[in-house]
Each structure stands twice: as structure tokens, then as C-alpha cells.
Amino acid sequence: MADTHAHGHHHEESFISKYIFSQDHKMIAKQFLITGIIWGVIGGLMSVLFRLQLGWPLEKFPILETLLGHWAEGGQIVPEFYYALVTMHGTILVFFVLTAGLSGTFANLLIPYQIGARDMASPLLNMLSFWFFFLASAIMFYSLFLPHGPAAGGWTIYPPLSALPQAIPGSGDGMTFWLIAMALFIVSSLMGGLNYVVTILNMRTKGMSMTRMPLTIWAIFFTAIIGVLSFPALLAAALLLIFDRSFGTSFYLADIFIGGEALPQVGGSPILFQHLFWFLGHPEVYIVILPAMGIVSEVLSTNARKPIFGYMAMIYSILGITFLSFIVWAHHMFMSGLNPFIGSIFMVLTIIIAVPSAVKVFNWIATIWKGNIRFTPAMLFAIGFVSTFIAGGVTGIFLGNSTIDIQLHDTYFVVAHFHIVMALSAIFGMFAGVYHWYPKLFHGRMMNSHMGYLHFFATLLTAYGVFWPMHYIGMAGVPRRYYSFENFTTFNQFDGLNAFISACAIIGFAAQFIFIANFFLSIFWGRKSKTLNPWNSNTLEWTTPLEHFHGNWPGEIPEVHRWAYDYSKPGAENDYIPQTTPLTEEELKEPAHH
Amino acid sequence: MSAEGGITKQIIMKTLVILSVVTILEIGVALIIGAYFPTFPKWLLNLFFVVLSLLKAFYITAEFMHMKYETKGFVFWTLIGLVLLVWFIIAMLYEGNSWLVNNSTWG
Amino acid sequence: MSAEAITQKVGNIWGGGTRPFNVRYGKMMMWFFLISDAFTFATLLIVYGTLRFSADWWPEPLNVFNTIPGVHGNSYPLVFVTIMTFILIVSSVTMVLAVYDGHHGNKKGVIKWMVYTIIGGAAFLGCQALEWTHLIHEGLSLYFNPFGPDGLVTKEAVMAGTAVAGPTHFGQLFFFITGFHGTHVLSGVVINIIILVNTVNGVYEKSGDYEMIEKVGLYWHFVDLVWVFVFLLFYLI
Lengths: 594, 107, 237
Description:
The complex is a heterotrimer of chains A (about 600), B (about 110) and C (about 240).
Chain A: H1 15-20, H2 25-55, H3 62-68, H4 79-115, H5 123-143, H6 173-202, H7 215-246, E1 257-258, E2 261-262, H8 270-304, H9 311-325, H10 340-352, H11 354-368, H12 377-400, H13 402-408, H14 412-441, E3 445-446, H15 449-475, H16 495-525, E4 527-528, H17 585-589
Antiparallel strand pairs in A: 1-2, 3-4
Helix pairs in contact in A: 2-4, 2-5, 2-16, 4-5, 4-6, 4-7, 4-8, 4-14, 5-6, 6-7, 7-8, 7-9, 8-9, 8-12, 8-14, 9-11, 11-12, 12-14, 12-15, 14-15, 15-16
Chain B: H1 9-36, H2 42-64, H3 72-79, H4 84-106
Chain C: H1 3-9, H2 25-53, H3 61-64, H4 79-103, H5 107-138, E1 147-148, E2 151-152, H6 155-160, H7 168-200, H8 203-207, H9 211-236
Antiparallel strand pairs in C: 1-2
């Protein structure tokens, strides 16, 4: 017997147990999503603020002083605040939006629904996972209002800036709060990840073999594994960092002079921290991108009315990416003084990642090739994902070469690369997922598709408007993380381009409010879907009633008879065959479907 | 229940004996080589200790942690992740050594 | 061959509606948690290895761990740590016996062996406290390592330039990693006490399911397993 909970009966729940300390996977998914959206707005707003500085460095905006006080004296953002902004923008978007917001939402929503389970293996741990995340969020949010500001040494918290509380204003309390918040975040991610893995292994309904699972579940499965195996490295690194900060050890510190005085710490190495950080940090980018890949596979296949091309190849490429993600971390460190010999090994391993990534890209294109495509907002975002993943992935091959990286390291080329391939793609995947599964989240209500189209095209154009020019600036050598380029006359020629980038960023940020309005208004006034299955999809979640209750299916959990991608099957009555439909006599005689 | 059967008190005691003997062997070799053969190649001695420690780890995992009595699939899919540590260890030790070389070459 | 036939051929274990590994979710979660925790320890031990490889000299374990607290003289290399290792191994054995009795529904046996396990854990922690106290007494701290190339030195002699201290990383890593391991032992003891109380109260007898003993047992053995490698890296190599 599988680990099922004997649910499926209705009983009245109090407000607190239904909406706040809920153990139901659907409610937890909504909690993650809404917290993620709030963080997205905060993180996006930060990027608007620092783009104001980069786009118009000499301009004064008196409104900023009114809003931010001493952080924007005279209407101009001060350097300390600029560094705090870029640091928190990175931290918030990478961890709080694209890790917890994306994985937390879709793993919780889709795992029990799509594998046919009543809930997660441990609903209690699932609830705790959200609340640890919420606690981490609250602490990180509070750190924004500390007298000396939040952490400001970059989201990668490299020592010595992070290891010496006296180094810069953000290195004091801001850094301490950052570390506490991230420790709680790691606990949350561990509890979530363990739950996802065992649920997928143990609680699939009858007939749901591993190779009949939708690719969303495969992607989330490997994402969870990556999280469980890579976050410990950050935990260990952060513990050692806390010792360096608070107890005067020297794991990461050597030969530091402050005000002409040498610190007693000797013998450590800041590069050691970089290794440990990137042993998490590199897998982390796959934690961000894999769920988006899974969502996109599902959305493309459903809306192209075609089976996913190369289902097994998709699974093997996710497996390949998972493995490779753990052995390439030092490609972030080619310029750190890394041993060049080992650097070249990391270079070769890094470039091998292009193989499974390309397999996935070609499979997506082959999936929609000659498909009967329905351009829903979800589909547009999925296609947009394929575009950004290619555009950003190609520059990854440049940067993976240690020799070319000497020129491009820490320039805007890198910023453009990882924003397109990781941030934009993952955000596009997240949008695709929200538009697609919105009826499942909110009782059959649909989001307005006209607003969806507007949102998509505004986002796509402004996103490329921001990051395309950054490639050119980066190739010309403009370094990232600089507050101002006024002292570099060679870079003055890019002032106009920088202003253009900033304008695109501001319009792009504003365009997200179309989505937010659409999201919250549709909860109450969205069009009700006429059927349970508005997209004519094959997967199990569309067989559940619109009304949410703990247990998902009122009666028995349906049995699964086929894979999730029987779209437009020749000879079939409809262009989709739900997974619950038994195989016909003819189908049983056919060779294996996948 | 997967844990039914399998391990017996006899096997538990046998494992205790093996772990004790291996530990005593490690200590004994460390003491004897340290006292009487200071020129014995250090890398060979260390390799010996690593092998014996892995042997102890094997017995703890297989018998005490019951892995010998689980399905093969479970053992494989649980422990396969540890493979990722191999390159982590090699790369980091190589790096550490190259810092030493750099420091002693360039000061 | 149809997909249906394939599923039938592999005996349906992966076909859904069943546990493919025949392991319940709680125990599987514990295992995956331990793998995760193993990565934390592995990272710390890799830090140790990296810093040791980058140091031009490292103290010989035989010259550092050469005393038994409370016994005079410096001629007992590795004896005390051997005692600690045995305490941990034996407490692992008593834990296995508790799990064994749990599977046979023998409440009295479980209680007896759990008590022994807790005593073993506490004894190990006590020994560690003694060892730490002794080393601190000898001058080892996060900031100073008295085990230099020319034997035990004092901070004053090093300050005066008449002696050479050992690498400070030795003490930092020793206290950090054995401390982190000790924290695991401590939490293991606490968890064991909670489980013991539950057993005494008949929680598992009522549910007829002693798997919880097995889960905490896995954690306890893991702590023993980590000690094998801490022992290897700090005391042998």
C-alpha cells in the first residue's frame, strides 16, 4: 500500500487552520506564490532604484529623498545604498522569488495533483517549510530597515566584506540578519525538498509509473534532489563565516589591513569561501531553472496539441544537468586566482552542459513544430522561455571559456547572460505556470487573457530592451557593481545606452502590475471556466473538483493507464486522451509509447 | 515492513568485533610506525588508514544502519549522491596544494 | 512490447500505488536527510583538507593527543580518543539492539537498550568536554596553537620570538568540527531521551509500530559514522 491519508471527507475548518496554518498542499502553494509575488515586487522596485542611478547618474530626483531619507540625500541614491540595493535585489530574486516562490508554489501545487496523491507525504513538514520560509522572509525584510542598512557586499557575500563587521555599513547587523534569514531559508528548503522527493517516490497512484509522470514532476524531483545535496555546502560555509565574524577565526581571512593596522587573522583564504559558496551557488541556478523547464514542457505540449518530443531524452537531460551542476562550480571563479590547470578542467566540464541543454531546446522546438498551437498567455510565456533560454544559454558558452572570461568577467556581459538565461527564463516559466494553473489554484476562475497578452509582449520587449544592450556594454569592458562611471571618460559613450536600459527596466517593472492586477482581480471576478479541464489537458489535476478540500478527490484516486502526452493521437475521438482513460485494444498491440 | 528479519544478535556482535579490531589495528599501526619507523612513507600509511576507515564506514552502514537488508534500488539511489563528493574532494585538495605552492613561490 | 506489459514484467514496483523501495516515507526522509547532513560534514572536512594542504606544516597527531585527562605524563598517545571511539561504537551497538527489540515488540528491551545508548552518548560528550578542557589548558585555542614544529610552546615565547607556534587553523578546525559533531551527539541524546519517554509511555506499543526507534537509530549511527572520519582526519592522518 502507498502512504495515503484517509481523507476525502469534508469537515469545517477554522479560519486559522484553513488559511494560515494550513497543512493542505494547495493552500501552501498559494501562500508560497503570494509571498513570492510580494518579494518580486520588492526586488523589482530595488532594480528600478539602482537603474535610476545608473541611467541618469547626475540627475536629482527629489521624490527619492522624500521616500528614502538619508539613503538618497539631495535626491540621489548614496553609494552605500546602491550596494545594499544590488545585494538585496540578488538575494531576494534568487532565493526568495525564484527558489521558494517558484519551487514552493509549483512543487506544492503539482506534486500531489499530478501524481495522484491526497497530499504530501508529511503535510506537517510542508506547513513548517512554508513558515520557516516566512520567518526567513520576515527577518530579511526587517534587515532592510536597519539603521546601517541591509547586507551590501553582493548576494554572493564574499569575505572579507562579509567576514569583517567593521568593513562597510552593511557588514554589521545587515550581514548578521542576512545569515540568520538564510539559515532559516536552508531549513525551509531542506524540509520542502525531502518532502517532495519521498512524495514522488512513494505516493504515486496506481498506474502512475515513473515514466508516465508529467515532465513537471520529473523536473521538480531533480530540483528537490539538487537542493537537498547543495544547500549543506552553504550551511557549512555560513557557519564558518559566522565564526570568522564573531569569534575571530581565520578560515576566510588573511593579511587584512584596516586603517594601517594588520588584523590578527592569518592563513585563511577568501577563495575557500568562493568555492564553498559556488558549490551551492551553481546548483542553485538549476534549482531556479529546472522547475521552469518542467512547466514549459507541460505547457508547450498541451497548447501545441502534440506529445512532448523525446520524453525519455528530456528526463535523461535533466538527470545529466543535475549531475553536471555539481562538478562545474569553479567556472564562477576563473579570475579569482584559481589554479589554471584545474580551471581548464572546470571549463571542459562546464561546456559539456551545453549538450543536455541543447537536447532540451531542440525537443521543445520539435514539440511545437507543426503543432496545432493555441496562443494562450501561458503558451506565449513558454515560447518566450525557449527564446530567452537560447539567447542567454549561447552566451554561457562564451563565458564558460576561461580565456574569454578573462575579458568578460565581472562586466555587464555576465549580468546580461545570467539575467536572460536564469532570471528571465525562470520568471517566464513561473508566469507560464501561473497563467496555466490559475484555474486550479482559484476554483476554476481564469485570468483575463487580453491583459495576459499585453503583459507578455510588454515584458518580452522591455526584458530584451534591458539585457540586449548590456552585452555590448559588457564587451566594451564596463564593469558591473559600479555606482557611477563618471570618472571613466571611455565609458561616457554608453550614457545614452544606459539611459535606454533604465527606461526599459522601469517600463518593464510597471508592466508587471498588469499581471498583479490581473492576478488579484481574477480571484474574485475572473471568468469561470465552463469545464473542469479548460485547456483540454491530459494530466490528473484536471480531474479534481473545482472546490478545494483536503484530499483532492472526493472518492477513490483515479487509476492511471497511459503517459501524460497523448495529444492528437491518430484514430482517437478527441485531440487529447486523459491519463485516466484505459488503453484500447489497438493501443495494447502497439509498441511502447515512450 | 522492510526491516523484518535480516539482522540477528549474532551479526550485531560480529560487527562490534570487526569494528573494534579495525580500530585497534589503526591505533596500533599509528603507534608502532610513529615510534619505530618514522621514515615509512606517509602517503602509504594514510592510504592504509583511509581504506580501514572506509571499511568501518561500510560495516556501520551495512549492518547497523541496515542497508544490507534494504532493497538494492534503495541502497543505490540513496547513496549514489555521495559520488558528487569525489570531484569536490579532489578539486579542493588540489586547490589547497596550489595555494601552498603559490605562497612558497611568491611569498 | 506495450507499456502495460513492461510494467507487469518488472513486478509493478515502480508502477504506482505501491512503495517502490518498500520503505515508508518517514524512514526514507531520514535517510535523505542524513545524506544531506553528510554533505554538510563533508564540506567541513573538505575545508579541513584544503587548509591543511595549503599549510606548510601540520602538527603530528601523536604529539598532540598524547595524554589522558587526570593521568600525569605525556606518554599515552591516542589512548583517550580510543576510549571515546569505543564508547561511541558500543552505544551504536546498544542502539541496534534497541531497534532489534523494537521489531520484536519487546518494550522492556527497547527501554533497557535506549537507556544504555543515552548513557553512552552522555559519556562520549563528557569525554569530549575533558579533552577540550585539557587542550585549552595546554594553550590550544581559536587564536593560538601551542603545538609547533619544536614541540609544545607558550604564547609568551612566541610573542618574544624565541619559539614558533603551530598553524592556528589546527585549533580552529579541531574545535569547530569536533564541536559540530558534538552538537550532533548532543541533539541525538536529546532525541533519544524524547523517544525513550515515548516508549515508556507506551506510545509505540499502542500503535504497534516501533519504526520511530529505527529512525532515531539511523541518526545515532550516522553520528558514529561521522566520528569514523573525524577520527581518521584529526587523530590518525
